[in-house]
Amino acid sequence: MIGTSDATTQLAAITARSRQALPIGRAERLDRIERARQLMAGQGADALIVGAGASLAYFTGIRWSMIERIVAMVLIRDRPPVIICPAFEEGSLSAEIAVPAEARFWQEEDSPYALIAGLLAEAGVRTVAVDPALPFGMADAIQQAAPGVRISSAATVIDGCRMLKSPAELAIIREAMSMTLEVQERASRILRPGIRASEVRRFVESAHRAIGSDGTTFCIVQFGASTAFPHGLPQDDVLAEGDVVLVDTGCLLEGYNSDLTRSYVFGAPDPLQRQVWDIEREAQLAVFQAARPGAPCSALDDAARAVLQAHGMGPDYRLPGLPHRTGHGVGMTIHEAPYLVRGNAMPLAPGMCMSNEPMIVVPGRFGIRLEDHFHITETGAAWFTEPSPSLDRPFA
Protein backbone atom coordinates (compact mmCIF):
# COMPACT_ATOMS: atom_id res chain seq x y z
CA MET A 1 0.00 0.00 0.00
CA ILE A 2 3.01 2.33 0.21
CA GLY A 3 2.77 5.15 -2.30
CA THR A 4 -0.62 4.17 -3.72
CA SER A 5 -2.69 7.26 -2.86
CA ASP A 6 -2.52 10.99 -2.14
CA ALA A 7 -3.06 13.30 0.82
CA THR A 8 -6.50 14.54 -0.22
CA THR A 9 -7.85 11.01 -0.61
CA GLN A 10 -6.37 9.78 2.62
CA LEU A 11 -7.63 12.71 4.70
CA ALA A 12 -11.12 12.28 3.24
CA ALA A 13 -11.07 8.59 4.19
CA ILE A 14 -10.40 9.24 7.88
CA THR A 15 -13.37 8.73 10.17
CA ALA A 16 -13.20 10.85 13.30
CA ARG A 17 -13.26 8.49 16.25
CA SER A 18 -15.66 8.74 19.15
CA ARG A 19 -13.39 8.73 22.17
CA GLN A 20 -13.69 5.48 24.09
CA ALA A 21 -11.26 6.27 26.90
CA LEU A 22 -12.68 8.44 29.67
CA PRO A 23 -10.85 11.50 31.03
CA ILE A 24 -9.13 11.11 34.38
CA GLY A 25 -11.68 11.64 37.15
CA ARG A 26 -11.56 13.51 40.42
CA ALA A 27 -11.36 10.36 42.57
CA GLU A 28 -8.25 9.18 40.73
CA ARG A 29 -6.54 12.54 41.18
CA LEU A 30 -7.27 12.42 44.92
CA ASP A 31 -5.73 8.93 45.03
CA ARG A 32 -2.63 10.35 43.33
CA ILE A 33 -2.33 13.06 45.97
CA GLU A 34 -2.62 10.48 48.74
CA ARG A 35 0.05 8.36 47.06
CA ALA A 36 2.30 11.43 46.90
CA ARG A 37 1.80 11.96 50.65
CA GLN A 38 2.89 8.38 51.31
CA LEU A 39 6.01 8.76 49.18
CA MET A 40 6.80 12.11 50.84
CA ALA A 41 6.72 10.41 54.23
CA GLY A 42 9.02 7.71 52.90
CA GLN A 43 11.72 10.24 52.06
CA GLY A 44 11.12 12.40 55.13
CA ALA A 45 9.63 15.40 53.33
CA ASP A 46 7.11 17.57 55.16
CA ALA A 47 5.90 19.23 51.94
CA LEU A 48 5.93 18.83 48.17
CA ILE A 49 6.10 21.71 45.67
CA VAL A 50 5.01 21.00 42.09
CA GLY A 51 5.26 23.69 39.40
CA ALA A 52 3.17 24.26 36.28
CA GLY A 53 3.54 21.56 33.67
CA ALA A 54 2.72 17.88 33.31
CA SER A 55 3.03 17.02 37.00
CA LEU A 56 0.74 19.84 38.13
CA ALA A 57 -1.80 18.63 35.56
CA TYR A 58 -1.35 15.08 36.82
CA PHE A 59 -2.29 15.95 40.38
CA THR A 60 -4.73 18.85 39.95
CA GLY A 61 -5.98 18.95 36.35
CA ILE A 62 -4.39 22.40 35.84
CA ARG A 63 -2.88 22.14 32.34
CA TRP A 64 -0.82 25.32 32.38
CA SER A 65 2.64 25.65 30.93
CA MET A 66 5.60 26.96 32.87
CA ILE A 67 6.20 30.71 32.45
CA GLU A 68 8.11 33.29 34.48
CA ARG A 69 5.24 33.72 36.98
CA ILE A 70 5.25 30.80 39.35
CA VAL A 71 2.10 28.70 39.62
CA ALA A 72 2.52 25.77 41.98
CA MET A 73 0.87 23.25 44.22
CA VAL A 74 2.18 23.10 47.77
CA LEU A 75 1.20 19.80 49.35
CA ILE A 76 1.74 19.58 53.09
CA ARG A 77 1.30 16.14 54.57
CA ASP A 78 -1.77 16.72 56.72
CA ARG A 79 -3.46 19.53 54.74
CA PRO A 80 -5.39 19.87 51.48
CA PRO A 81 -3.31 21.09 48.53
CA VAL A 82 -2.63 24.82 48.31
CA ILE A 83 -2.34 26.43 44.87
CA ILE A 84 -0.06 29.45 44.61
CA CYS A 85 -1.33 31.56 41.71
CA PRO A 86 -1.24 35.13 40.33
CA ALA A 87 -4.37 36.96 41.45
CA PHE A 88 -5.43 37.91 37.91
CA GLU A 89 -5.65 34.18 37.05
CA GLU A 90 -8.24 33.44 39.75
CA GLY A 91 -11.10 32.93 37.30
CA SER A 92 -9.05 30.70 35.02
CA LEU A 93 -7.86 28.67 38.00
CA SER A 94 -11.43 28.09 39.18
CA ALA A 95 -12.41 26.84 35.74
CA GLU A 96 -9.44 24.49 35.45
CA ILE A 97 -8.76 22.89 38.84
CA ALA A 98 -10.15 19.38 39.26
CA VAL A 99 -9.53 18.71 42.97
CA PRO A 100 -10.50 20.47 46.21
CA ALA A 101 -7.74 22.89 47.13
CA GLU A 102 -7.06 26.15 48.89
CA ALA A 103 -5.81 28.97 46.67
CA ARG A 104 -3.44 31.72 47.76
CA PHE A 105 -3.03 34.56 45.31
CA TRP A 106 -0.30 37.11 44.77
CA GLN A 107 -0.40 40.48 43.04
CA GLU A 108 2.17 41.56 40.47
CA GLU A 109 4.18 43.59 42.97
CA ASP A 110 4.17 40.79 45.56
CA SER A 111 6.75 38.05 46.03
CA PRO A 112 5.15 34.65 45.45
CA TYR A 113 8.20 33.12 47.10
CA ALA A 114 7.53 35.01 50.31
CA LEU A 115 3.96 33.71 50.09
CA ILE A 116 5.28 30.15 49.81
CA ALA A 117 7.75 30.70 52.64
CA GLY A 118 4.96 32.03 54.86
CA LEU A 119 2.84 28.97 54.13
CA LEU A 120 5.72 26.65 55.00
CA ALA A 121 6.46 28.52 58.21
CA GLU A 122 2.77 28.50 59.17
CA ALA A 123 2.72 24.71 58.88
CA GLY A 124 6.09 24.19 60.59
CA VAL A 125 7.63 22.65 57.50
CA ARG A 126 11.34 21.89 57.75
CA THR A 127 11.97 19.73 54.67
CA VAL A 128 10.54 20.29 51.19
CA ALA A 129 10.69 18.03 48.13
CA VAL A 130 10.71 20.20 44.99
CA ASP A 131 9.58 19.15 41.53
CA PRO A 132 12.80 18.55 39.53
CA ALA A 133 11.10 20.20 36.52
CA LEU A 134 10.82 23.49 38.44
CA PRO A 135 13.36 25.97 36.99
CA PHE A 136 16.43 26.45 39.14
CA GLY A 137 15.69 30.16 39.53
CA MET A 138 12.32 29.41 41.11
CA ALA A 139 13.70 26.71 43.41
CA ASP A 140 16.51 29.05 44.44
CA ALA A 141 14.03 31.86 45.12
CA ILE A 142 12.05 29.54 47.42
CA GLN A 143 15.25 28.65 49.26
CA GLN A 144 16.22 32.32 49.63
CA ALA A 145 12.78 33.17 50.99
CA ALA A 146 12.81 30.21 53.40
CA PRO A 147 16.47 29.78 54.42
CA GLY A 148 15.64 27.47 57.31
CA VAL A 149 13.95 24.94 55.08
CA ARG A 150 15.91 22.05 53.60
CA ILE A 151 15.13 21.48 49.92
CA SER A 152 15.58 18.16 48.11
CA SER A 153 14.46 16.65 44.82
CA ALA A 154 10.92 15.29 44.54
CA ALA A 155 11.88 12.95 41.68
CA THR A 156 11.18 9.81 43.70
CA VAL A 157 7.77 11.16 44.74
CA ILE A 158 6.66 12.38 41.32
CA ASP A 159 8.13 9.47 39.35
CA GLY A 160 6.83 7.07 41.97
CA CYS A 161 3.32 8.30 41.19
CA ARG A 162 3.47 8.93 37.45
CA MET A 163 5.40 5.78 36.46
CA LEU A 164 2.61 3.42 37.54
CA LYS A 165 -0.33 3.95 35.20
CA SER A 166 -3.89 3.18 36.22
CA PRO A 167 -6.36 1.31 33.99
CA ALA A 168 -7.83 4.69 32.99
CA GLU A 169 -4.41 5.99 31.93
CA LEU A 170 -3.62 2.80 30.02
CA ALA A 171 -6.91 3.13 28.14
CA ILE A 172 -6.12 6.70 27.07
CA ILE A 173 -2.59 5.81 25.95
CA ARG A 174 -3.86 2.78 24.04
CA GLU A 175 -6.40 4.90 22.18
CA ALA A 176 -3.81 7.57 21.35
CA MET A 177 -1.37 4.95 20.06
CA SER A 178 -4.10 3.42 17.89
CA MET A 179 -4.83 6.83 16.36
CA THR A 180 -1.17 7.41 15.53
CA LEU A 181 -0.77 3.94 14.03
CA GLU A 182 -3.60 4.67 11.57
CA VAL A 183 -2.06 8.06 10.75
CA GLN A 184 1.31 6.36 10.17
CA GLU A 185 -0.22 3.88 7.72
CA ARG A 186 -2.09 6.59 5.83
CA ALA A 187 1.09 8.69 5.65
CA SER A 188 2.89 5.79 3.95
CA ARG A 189 0.24 5.75 1.24
CA ILE A 190 0.83 9.37 0.13
CA LEU A 191 4.52 8.88 -0.67
CA ARG A 192 5.77 9.47 -4.20
CA PRO A 193 9.14 10.24 -5.80
CA GLY A 194 10.02 13.88 -5.17
CA ILE A 195 7.71 14.39 -2.18
CA ARG A 196 9.31 16.50 0.55
CA ALA A 197 9.45 15.52 4.20
CA SER A 198 7.64 18.77 5.06
CA GLU A 199 4.62 17.70 2.99
CA VAL A 200 4.41 14.42 4.92
CA ARG A 201 4.65 16.32 8.21
CA ARG A 202 1.77 18.58 7.20
CA PHE A 203 -0.30 15.53 6.31
CA VAL A 204 0.42 13.91 9.69
CA GLU A 205 -0.61 17.08 11.52
CA SER A 206 -3.88 17.27 9.60
CA ALA A 207 -4.57 13.56 9.97
CA HIS A 208 -4.05 13.58 13.73
CA ARG A 209 -6.68 16.33 13.98
CA ALA A 210 -9.07 14.61 11.59
CA ILE A 211 -8.96 11.35 13.51
CA GLY A 212 -10.05 13.05 16.74
CA SER A 213 -6.87 13.52 18.77
CA ASP A 214 -5.88 16.79 20.41
CA GLY A 215 -3.21 17.28 17.76
CA THR A 216 0.30 16.25 16.79
CA THR A 217 2.92 16.75 19.49
CA PHE A 218 5.94 16.10 17.25
CA CYS A 219 6.70 14.68 13.83
CA ILE A 220 10.04 13.53 12.44
CA VAL A 221 10.10 12.54 8.75
CA GLN A 222 13.41 11.38 7.24
CA PHE A 223 14.40 9.89 3.89
CA GLY A 224 17.57 8.15 2.73
CA ALA A 225 20.86 9.03 4.40
CA SER A 226 19.14 11.33 6.90
CA THR A 227 17.69 8.25 8.61
CA ALA A 228 21.19 7.44 9.90
CA PHE A 229 20.80 10.41 12.28
CA PRO A 230 18.34 9.42 15.04
CA HIS A 231 16.59 12.80 15.09
CA GLY A 232 17.40 13.86 11.56
CA LEU A 233 19.23 16.75 9.94
CA PRO A 234 18.18 20.41 9.47
CA GLN A 235 17.00 19.87 5.90
CA ASP A 236 13.82 19.08 4.01
CA ASP A 237 14.50 15.63 2.56
CA VAL A 238 13.24 14.72 -0.93
CA LEU A 239 12.14 11.11 -1.47
CA ALA A 240 13.74 8.90 -4.10
CA GLU A 241 13.28 5.27 -5.15
CA GLY A 242 15.13 2.91 -2.82
CA ASP A 243 15.22 5.33 0.12
CA VAL A 244 14.63 4.18 3.66
CA VAL A 245 11.70 6.13 5.08
CA LEU A 246 11.55 6.84 8.82
CA VAL A 247 8.49 8.51 10.35
CA ASP A 248 8.41 9.11 14.12
CA THR A 249 5.36 10.93 15.44
CA GLY A 250 2.78 11.15 18.20
CA CYS A 251 -0.38 12.89 19.26
CA LEU A 252 -1.98 14.12 22.47
CA LEU A 253 -5.20 12.70 23.90
CA GLU A 254 -6.67 13.77 27.26
CA GLY A 255 -3.22 14.95 28.32
CA TYR A 256 -1.41 11.72 27.35
CA ASN A 257 1.00 11.04 24.48
CA SER A 258 1.41 8.51 21.73
CA ASP A 259 4.79 7.91 20.09
CA LEU A 260 5.40 5.45 17.24
CA THR A 261 8.10 5.03 14.63
CA ARG A 262 7.86 3.09 11.39
CA SER A 263 10.75 2.40 9.01
CA TYR A 264 10.38 0.89 5.55
CA VAL A 265 11.74 1.27 2.04
CA PHE A 266 10.16 3.24 -0.78
CA GLY A 267 10.53 0.81 -3.67
CA ALA A 268 12.51 -2.42 -3.66
CA PRO A 269 14.76 -2.95 -0.61
CA ASP A 270 18.39 -3.86 -1.21
CA PRO A 271 19.90 -6.84 0.68
CA LEU A 272 21.52 -4.69 3.40
CA GLN A 273 18.32 -2.75 4.08
CA ARG A 274 16.40 -6.02 4.41
CA GLN A 275 19.04 -7.58 6.66
CA VAL A 276 19.20 -4.60 9.03
CA TRP A 277 15.40 -4.31 9.19
CA ASP A 278 15.14 -7.98 10.17
CA ILE A 279 17.78 -7.58 12.89
CA GLU A 280 15.97 -4.53 14.23
CA ARG A 281 12.73 -6.51 14.40
CA GLU A 282 14.53 -9.35 16.20
CA ALA A 283 16.00 -6.93 18.74
CA GLN A 284 12.61 -5.30 19.36
CA LEU A 285 11.02 -8.69 20.07
CA ALA A 286 13.90 -9.65 22.39
CA VAL A 287 13.26 -6.53 24.45
CA PHE A 288 9.57 -7.36 24.71
CA GLN A 289 10.29 -10.93 25.77
CA ALA A 290 12.65 -9.69 28.51
CA ALA A 291 9.98 -7.37 29.95
CA ARG A 292 8.40 -8.74 33.13
CA PRO A 293 7.78 -7.57 36.71
CA GLY A 294 10.95 -7.47 38.77
CA ALA A 295 13.35 -7.37 35.82
CA PRO A 296 15.74 -4.41 35.99
CA CYS A 297 15.29 -1.77 33.30
CA SER A 298 18.88 -2.38 32.21
CA ALA A 299 18.08 -6.00 31.31
CA LEU A 300 15.91 -4.83 28.41
CA ASP A 301 18.72 -2.69 27.00
CA ASP A 302 21.04 -5.68 27.42
CA ALA A 303 18.59 -7.89 25.50
CA ALA A 304 18.60 -5.57 22.49
CA ARG A 305 22.39 -5.24 22.41
CA ALA A 306 22.86 -9.01 22.70
CA VAL A 307 20.90 -9.49 19.48
CA LEU A 308 22.88 -6.83 17.66
CA GLN A 309 26.21 -8.19 18.87
CA ALA A 310 25.24 -11.70 17.75
CA HIS A 311 24.89 -10.22 14.24
CA GLY A 312 28.31 -8.56 14.40
CA MET A 313 27.08 -5.08 15.38
CA GLY A 314 28.27 -2.90 18.24
CA PRO A 315 29.27 -3.73 20.87
CA ASP A 316 28.10 -1.05 23.27
CA TYR A 317 27.26 2.16 21.38
CA ARG A 318 29.57 1.51 18.44
CA LEU A 319 28.20 1.71 14.92
CA PRO A 320 26.83 -0.04 13.00
CA GLY A 321 24.65 -0.61 16.02
CA LEU A 322 22.45 1.05 18.61
CA PRO A 323 23.66 4.58 19.46
CA HIS A 324 21.26 5.35 22.34
CA ARG A 325 19.17 3.73 25.10
CA THR A 326 16.62 1.12 24.08
CA GLY A 327 13.53 2.91 25.41
CA HIS A 328 11.86 5.44 27.65
CA GLY A 329 8.72 5.78 29.69
CA VAL A 330 5.70 7.53 28.22
CA GLY A 331 2.62 9.19 29.64
CA MET A 332 1.86 12.87 30.18
CA THR A 333 5.26 13.62 28.66
CA ILE A 334 6.73 11.80 25.67
CA HIS A 335 9.93 10.92 27.54
CA GLU A 336 9.61 10.14 31.25
CA ALA A 337 10.74 7.53 33.77
CA PRO A 338 11.50 4.67 33.63
CA TYR A 339 14.36 4.57 31.11
CA LEU A 340 15.60 1.36 29.50
CA VAL A 341 19.28 2.09 29.72
CA ARG A 342 22.43 0.36 30.92
CA GLY A 343 22.98 0.80 34.64
CA ASN A 344 19.34 1.45 35.53
CA ALA A 345 18.62 -1.18 38.19
CA MET A 346 15.03 -0.01 38.79
CA PRO A 347 12.79 -3.10 38.74
CA LEU A 348 9.88 -3.10 36.33
CA ALA A 349 6.42 -3.13 37.92
CA PRO A 350 2.85 -3.52 36.65
CA GLY A 351 1.55 -0.28 35.20
CA MET A 352 4.89 0.95 33.85
CA CYS A 353 4.71 2.00 30.18
CA MET A 354 7.69 2.34 27.90
CA SER A 355 8.91 2.54 24.34
CA ASN A 356 10.76 -0.29 22.62
CA GLU A 357 13.02 1.26 19.97
CA PRO A 358 16.48 -0.33 19.66
CA MET A 359 17.40 1.68 16.55
CA ILE A 360 20.17 0.41 14.27
CA VAL A 361 22.35 2.99 12.52
CA VAL A 362 24.56 2.13 9.54
CA PRO A 363 26.77 5.26 9.23
CA GLY A 364 26.63 6.99 5.87
CA ARG A 365 23.84 4.71 4.64
CA PHE A 366 20.62 4.63 6.67
CA GLY A 367 19.03 3.90 10.01
CA ILE A 368 16.13 1.62 10.96
CA ARG A 369 13.96 2.39 13.97
CA LEU A 370 10.88 0.40 14.87
CA GLU A 371 9.15 1.90 17.89
CA ASP A 372 6.14 0.49 19.66
CA HIS A 373 5.18 0.78 23.31
CA PHE A 374 4.14 -1.78 25.88
CA HIS A 375 3.06 -1.81 29.50
CA ILE A 376 4.06 -4.20 32.25
CA THR A 377 1.37 -6.59 33.44
CA GLU A 378 1.29 -8.96 36.42
CA THR A 379 2.85 -11.71 34.29
CA GLY A 380 4.85 -10.00 31.56
CA ALA A 381 4.15 -7.26 29.06
CA ALA A 382 1.38 -6.21 26.65
CA TRP A 383 1.73 -4.17 23.47
CA PHE A 384 -0.26 -0.99 22.94
CA THR A 385 0.17 -1.45 19.18
CA GLU A 386 1.19 -4.48 17.13
CA PRO A 387 4.75 -4.18 15.80
CA SER A 388 5.50 -4.20 12.07
CA PRO A 389 5.20 -7.77 10.74
CA SER A 390 7.86 -7.46 8.04
CA LEU A 391 9.68 -5.03 5.80
CA ASP A 392 7.33 -5.96 2.96
CA ARG A 393 4.29 -5.46 5.24
CA PRO A 394 5.27 -2.69 7.65
CA PHE A 395 1.66 -2.31 8.79
CA ALA A 396 -0.27 -5.28 10.16
From TrEMBL:
Pfam families: Creatinase_N, Peptidase_M24. This is Xaa-Pro peptidase family protein. Residues 172-378 form the Peptidase M24 domain. The lineage of its organism: Bacteria, Pseudomonadati, Pseudomonadota, Alphaproteobacteria, Rhodobacterales. Keywords: Hydrolase, Metal-binding, Metalloprotease, Protease. The keyword Cytoplasm does not apply. Belongs to the peptidase M24B family. Coiled coil: none annotated.
